[in-house]
Design a protein that fits this description.
The chain is α/β, with parallel strands linked by helices. Helix content is 33%, strand content 9%. The protein has a 5-stranded mixed beta sheet with strand order 3-2-4-1-5. The radius of gyration is 16 Å and the shape is globular.
Length: 210
């Protein structure tokens, strides 16, 4: 898996210092600064402590099965803002190279909020997942041939669990799904659009912004 994060700190330098601090007990394999600089923090052969308590597609120890990439951004606590073009331009080939080398599927390129919905919101609703999707580096937001399955809340959450999310906290899981696939409205409410998007994602070849 590849797990994308934002640093959630006021500056890139302070994020790097924290990731290098043994006492902080947090680390990542890479950091991508706002100017496009890529810093290798931990060798890919080693575990990095980036995901914390997390779950994705039957994997409970995400740190053991993933490459973690921290993307410098102050996050929701310190003035969340769009990710600069230079930063995304540097991130794309990094993700592509890792994805190809380990034969990672698009469905296993995820955000921190996807694997830890109850605790995390990063990389957040401003992250340009569409830029990854159109290069086949992540799943697209389905936009074509959508059908509403009319699921109940329980049915939707069962489908969400099948897709990969931990649905122990239903509201958190729904909002994490929306933050990823319907970021313009993250309200925790299951509507027809959410049902249609999720159904399409469960089909073999979702079609959308890729």
């Amino acid at each position: 898996m590849i797990v994308l994060h934002y640093t959630g700190m006021q500056a890139g330098a302070s994020a790097i210092a924290r990731l290098r601090d043994i006492e902080a007990k947090v680390s990542s394999h890479y950091l991508v600064d706002e100017d496009g600089t890529v810093v290798r923090m931990v060798d890919e052969a080693h575990r990095a402590w980036h995901a914390g308590r997390s779950h994705w597609r039957e994997i409970d120890d995400v740190n053991s099965a993933s490459i973690g990439i921290e993307i410098v951004n102050p996050g929701h606590e310190f003035g969340y803002r769009p990710f600069p073009a230079e930063q995304i331009a540097a991130l794309l080939p990094l993700v592509a190279e890792i994805k190809d080398r380990y034969a990672i599927t698009r469905g296993n390129v995820v955000g921190h909020s996807d694997v830890a919905p109850e605790r995390k919101r990063d990389p957040g609703e401003l992250f340009p997942w569409h830029e990854l999707a159109k290069r086949r580096l992540a799943l697209p937001r389905p936009t074509r041939n959508l059908m509403d399955p009319g699921w109940t809340e329980a049915g939707f959450c069962l489908a969400l669990e099948r897709f990969g999310y931990d649905v122990t906290n239903r509201m958190a899981a729904i909002m994490a799904f929306q933050r990823r696939f319907r970021p313009e409205m993250v309200d925790g409410e299951i509507d027809a659009e959410c049902r249609m998007i999720l159904l399409a994602l469960l089909l073999p070849k979702p079609t959308g912004d890729d």
